[in-house]
Amino acid sequence: MRVKLAYGRTGLEVPLPDNRTTVIEPPHLPEVEDPAGTLREAMREPVHGPPLRDLLRPGQTVAITMCDGTRPQPRHLMIPAVLAELAGTVSPCDVTIVVATGTHRGNTRAELAQMLGEELASSVRVVNHDARDPEQLVWMGQHGQAVPVWLNRHWVEADLRITTGYVEPHMFAGFTGGPKTVVPGLTGLDTALTLYSAERIADPQAAWGVCKGNPVYDDIRAVAAAVGNVDFSLDVLLNRDHQIVAAFGGSLFHAHSEARHAARELAMRPVRGEFDIVLTSNGGYPMDQNLYQCNKGLSAAAAIVKPGGTIICAAECRDGFPDHGDYRRILMSAPSPHELLADIESRRSAIADQWQAQVLAKVLIKARVIMRTDHLGAAELSKAHLESTDHLGDTIEALLAEYGPDARICVLPTGPQTIPYVVGRRRSSVR
């Protein structure tokens, strides 16, 4: 059999043995017939709370969030839909689109034009949130479990605040979208580092699809409830081609609750037992732009690989580790994954990108990891405790021979768009 992995923009085919391979994919739901109409209906007939138009007043300033370029949000559909609802009441010159970068780099002018379309990117004010720029941040006090909260000034000072995003399981925050769009999407670096501290991430409840009792999600919710000031939330669910299959609008927590229940049914799949080899992707472009983002695909695979097994991840990584931030340095700062994890968990002061290094270290302690990428060399991957291959078929054949005739392989062609879990283990709660 041949399976096509989501890889970059084009995909990557790999030969696999029929009798030893399990392929796990999300069900392919078709795109809604009328995406613009579906979005409009979500804003006019919300899950909870008043329609968006009922919140509008002439002369208001409006801030609208959108995801950054590492996320497959259909911004070219969602942002125009929101602007259409504002039309006639709110002046375009009073609208600011804030890119919820979290701790990521800002998007370039060319990237924004690609994400929104040239005409829209040129006609509306678009700003990148910068978690490291004190001039962009407003102190909002401590909330949740002693979380110091700095929040984006453009967001705080707007009269009306609207979030847009998409919902899928997240490896330690439970789910994306909803409150996570603001916290940590629009927070300062200190806030994000506290929310994603080594202690919180180490908690067993900080996991895919878990909200109740998850210390990361609990504080995201607490901070968003205290200071997020979200007036209206618009989230969508996407199929494996990144097309809209459902939309949820309304008050922040009610809309997100409905969306994540639907996302769990769409994305999470049971399997019977662990596998010797798990072949995954990171969902293709734009999600596989760098190794940092690949932790999602690796974490999904780690949930079902046997201890001592092998994870193979195919990801383009056109943006490298990436070059900005501390991720490369942290990964290469210790001689082994065990020492890397111990070093991270022993630190009292937060380090940028430490949580992603912590996630990868845990994966590496459980299983061998081999990368198939066009933009990172074997030498630099080795320094980060990762192996490399240029030939997936040959590598898989050799691994199957090594593990023996009873060895099984599982394939996640769309990576973290499908989150597998082993039947019999306690299932996640999305409440």
TrEMBL record:
Residues 7-208 form the LarA-like N-terminal domain. This is Nickel-dependent lactate racemase. The lineage of its organism: Bacteria, Bacillati, Actinomycetota, Actinomycetes, Glycomycetales. Gene3D superfamilies: 3.40.50.11440, 3.90.226.30. Residues 275-415 form the Lactate racemase C-terminal domain. NCBIfam families: Ni_dep_LarA (NF033504). It comes from the Bacteria. GO terms for molecular function: lactate racemase activity. It comes from Stackebrandtia endophytica.
